[in-house]
Amino acid sequence: MNYKIINGAILKSDPEKLYTLSEDLFVVDGKVYENLPEDVKEEELEIVDAAHHLVMPGLINLHTHAYMTVLRNYADDVDFDEWLFKRVMPVEDRLPQEGAYWSSFLACMEMVRTGTTCFNDMHMFRGQSARAAADAGVRAFIGRGLVGEDLYVDGASRFEDCLEEQKEWESSKLLKFVLAPHAIYSCSAKLYEQVAREAEERHMLKHTHLSESDVEVANCLEKYGKTPVEFLRDTGFLDEKTILAHCVKMQGEDISIIAEAGSTVVTNPASNAKLGNGFAPLHKFAESGVNLCLATDGTSSNNTLNLFREMNLVSLIHKGLAGDSTMLPADQVVRMVTENAAAAVGMKDQIGTIRDGANADLIFIDLNEPSMFPNNNIVSSLCYSANGSEVDSVMIDGRFVMRKREFVTMDGERVRFEVQRIVDKYL
Ligand SMILES: [Zn+2]
Asked: Of 291, 318, 344, which one is at a domain's C-terminal end?
């Protein structure tokens, strides 16, 4: 279906600012246009009336573990060791493939409900995150978590999972695959070197956890005599196609090493706070010119996948920490989940923006909701007032996946039934 979107306030950007414009938009064959393409007849378009709605690019959640959604509120208020080794990992070991599927599907529902149209996922269950995203109609970057000493020996079966799922979904317009070594404490230097080489040859993105906790940094210094960032740099893993989740515990030259490599930093403020890991030094990252993005992490450590909550948190936390009310203004925060994230995944000008020929990943936000009214500053309201419930409709690749708050591609009742069945059996 092709559409003409009328009466909406359209979120636009230039290098200086984000702003809104009243103009019609056209959605043709999954792409968005400000002017009707010549070969398209206007009378064949379905009209979408977006009166009193903001039409903006869908949000991009750059670090998730969708399969963990079944663990929401299952292991809270315990220390990190208890959380990971005693609560989370035993369930991960028991969870069947279909458990990961329904869990990931629920993740897609929550993300769509709160305006996320694309996520970058690290998972443990071959094909399940991909299948859930494809069935839900959500754009995703999928990485099988890799661990081990050697990618071709103890890491081989996971690497094979990664290549197999990539092959299976080769023709998908929505799914892309990344290489995702888990972390420096679960992967050797050799494995990171091997992954860097494979990524280069296969033109794939890289995604890993980095410098999340004090323990990780202390152990790395003790074992290798270098910081986690230096460790990764020395493996050749850091470049402009690398996405680094967390980067909380930066030491010495760490920030300039990341900046020089051109890698993306994804901050997860709720997860870092909840697990007692503190806060990433975002003011220093901002000064260094690093591409800075925002994510929720998995629901076991957040406990939501709602990027509106995360936008609010990141701005307030860092204003408070820096004692500076000008830190992370709304404009910058919105870019973290749109333009910056698009650049991180190599899709600048294709997602995270509304411009001629970009993918039609659009969300419609009800500006008449009490939380959004009056509309004194729409960009501010996205960061400081919205809670995600204002998202009225979501379109991904030109297809409505939620319209007027009704899911189109997802059956909520079925998903709840299946997730409850998994919870009853495996938690
Ligand atoms: Zn994570």
From this structure: 344
24 shares its domain with 144? no
Residue 66 pLDDT more than 90?
yes
In this prediction, residue 215 carries a pLDDT of: 94
Q: How remote is the CA of residue 276 from the centroid of ligand 1, in Å?
A: 14
- Block residue for tokens 């990344």: 178
93 Cα: distance to centroid of ligand 1 (angstroms): 17
The CATH number given to whatever domain includes residue 121 is 3.20.20.140
How far does the centroid of ligand 1 lie from the alpha carbon of residue 414, in Å? 27
In the chain, the percentage of residues whose pLDDT exceeds 70 is 100
pLDDT in tens, 237-276: 999 999 999 999 999 999 999 999 999 999 999 999 999 9
CA–CA separation, 176 and 126 (whole Å): 14
The answer on 168 and 19 residing in a single domain is no
Q: Which domain holds residue 53?
A: 3-58+351-407
DSSP per-residue string spanning 173-192 = SSEEE-BEE--TTTB-HHHH
Cα–Cα distance measured from residue 15 to residue 321, given in angstroms and rounded to the nearest whole number:
27
Tell me which residues have their CB within 5 A of the ion that is ligand 1: 297
